[in-house]
Amino acid sequence: MRLIFPTLCALLLTISGCSRTPEWTLFFYPDAPVGTQVQIEQSTAFDSIHGYYDSLEVCRIKAKGMQKLAGNKGSYQCGHLCQVTDGLLACRKLTQ
Predict the structure, then answer these.
(1) What is the pLDDT of residue 44?
(2) Number of helical (H) and strand (E) elements in the chain, helices listed first
(3) Residues 31, 75: Cα–Cα separation, whole Å
(4) pLDDT at 16 over 50
(5) Has residue 71 got a pLDDT over 70?
(6) How far is 65 from 35, CA to CA, in rounded Å?
(7) What span, in angstroms and rounded, lies between the C-alpha atoms of 44 and 4?
(8) pLDDT of residue 19
(9) Higher-confidence position of 15 and 51
(10) According to the model, what pLDDT value does residue 33 have?
(11) 31: Cβ–Cβ under 8 A, 6 or more apart, which residues?
């Protein structure tokens, strides 16, 4: 009976640590030339999302891996704190 409370506390701490929301969204455009600043089109924005990441560094690493897999083609943007409001996607910041 004494082990139930500490075990429950440990479980809750573990679960709460896993619920962190990723801050960066990767937008990848396989048909765009490498390094191109691509404007996010609202009509295709959701199709261009290729993952959610905790840091800009990890987002960039994933994007460069996708370029390599695409035969050194494609362009990307990492969006910071992207949200959908009234059906429109908006990010606080976009960067490569």
Answers:
(1) 67
(2) 2, 6
(3) 8
(4) no
(5) yes
(6) 14
(7) 50
(8) 61
(9) 51
(10) 81
(11) 73, 74
Residue % of the chain over a pLDDT of 70: 74
Could you tell me what percentage of the chain is helix, strand and coil, using 3-state DSSP and rounding each to the nearest 5?
Answer: 30, 25, 40
Closest-CA residue to 24 (of 61, 51, 62): 51
Tokens of 74: 């494609």
> Tokens 């409001």 label which residue?
85
Query: What's the one-letter identity of residue 55?
Result: S
Q: What is the DSSP string of 30-86?
A: TTSPTT--PPPPTTTTGGGEEEEESSHHHHHHHHHHHHHHTTS--EEEEEES-EEET
Q: Cβ of 50: how many Cβ atoms within 10 Å? A: 16
Inter-residue contact 76 to 96 (CB < 8 Å)? yes
Question: 51-60 b/e with 16+ CB inside 10 Å = b?
Answer: bebeeeebbb
Residues 6 or more apart in contact with residue 47 via CB below 8 angstroms: none
Q: What is the DSSP letter of 41?
A: P
